[in-house]
Amino acid sequence: ALNPDVLGLQELANDGYGPGSAIATLVRKLNDATAPGQYAFIDVDAATGQLNALGSDAIKVGLIYQPGRVTPIGRTTVLNTPEFINAGDGVPRNRASLAQAFQQNSTGARLIVNVNHFKSKATPCDLPDQGDGQGHCSAVRTIAARQLAAWLATNPTGTADPDILLLGDYNASAQVDPITSLEQAGYVNLLKTHLGQAYTFAFSGQWGALDHALASASLGPQVLRAAVH
Predict the structure, then answer these.
(1) Terminal alpha carbon distance of the chain
(2) 3-state class of 15 per DSSP?
(3) H or E element that contains 185
(4) 67-222 adopts what CATH topology?
(5) What pLDDT score was predicted for residue 205?
(6) How does DSSP classify residue 146?
(7) DSSP class per residue in 191-225
(8) Is the model more confident about 222 or about 210?
(9) Bridge partners (DSSP) listed for residue 13
(10) Contacts of 217 (CB under 8 A, 6+ apart)
(11) Closest by alpha carbon to 115, among 66, 199, 59, 158?
């Protein structure tokens, strides 16, 4: 069974952080099934002082963690600029990106976790499908990847820790421009490194990997294994 210190989530209902919100309900159910207070969540609006910090779309990303194992440190920070959200398109396309640093309670080791959900291939963007197999909106996803890498390089959490883990649904396979752009920025694709041809979804008889975990150059050698469940 999964028992993560930190869990990155996508497609959470974007309904705030109150007692009846999706993320609060999920954490409450997890604690009911494990132990009181075992899991907690990052209240991004409270931490940033910004209402709807992760945008007004119907869904958003999120972070759940075990406070008995790790403690959030530094700034809870969000990339929600038009340059990232629109990524060169006329309307918003990507969901806001969330970054939070954590410190391991037992050792003091630190890690920045970044959660993303890039534009899907389901509907076209302003630029037409290039017919190269990358699907609709590859340019939007590629611009977002480059914006993301540049933002993370600015130390947005204020912790200056080089160990960064990128998690999320990038709606791009390992071989295409959005993911290779992150690799060119120094990130290591952990699924490709540890599992080779792993797949994370099946749709209409086709299999592939749209969900990825990428580690910064300093973190990559510290990762012992990766798995898809």
Answers:
(1) 9
(2) coil
(3) none
(4) Deoxyribonuclease I; Chain A (3.60.10)
(5) 62
(6) H
(7) HHHHHSS---EEETTEEE--EEEEE-TTTGGG---
(8) 222
(9) 59
(10) 162, 186, 187, 188
(11) 59
Cα separation of 197 and 201, whole Å?
12
Tokens coding 196: 């080779």
Question: Which residues are 64's β-sheet partners?
Answer: 7, 41
Question: How many C-beta atoms surround the C-beta of residue 129 within 10 A?
Answer: 15
Token pair 């990997």 in the structure block, residue? 209
- CB-based burial label for 155 (10 Å; 0-12, 13-18, 19+): middle
DSSP element (H, E) containing 28: helix 22-33
What's the pLDDT score for residue 156? 99
Rg, the chain, Cα only: 17
CB atoms within 10 A of CB 93: 23
Instruction: Find the mean pLDDT for residues 163-175.
Output: 91
Distance of alpha carbon 182 from alpha carbon 165, whole angstroms: 12
pTM tops 0.85: yes
Q: What is the 3-state secondary structure (H, E, C) of 58-107?
A: CEEEEEEECCCCEEEEEEEEEECCHHHHCCCCCCCCCCCEEEEEEEECCC
How far apart are the C-alpha atoms of 226 and 45, rounded to whole Å?
31
Supply 225's token pair: 């294994």
- Residues 6 or more apart whose CB falls under 8 angstroms from that of 122 comprise 136
Parallel, antiparallel or unpaired: strands 164-169 and 110-117: parallel
The residue length of the chain stands at: 229
Token pair of 105 as six digits: 């309670």
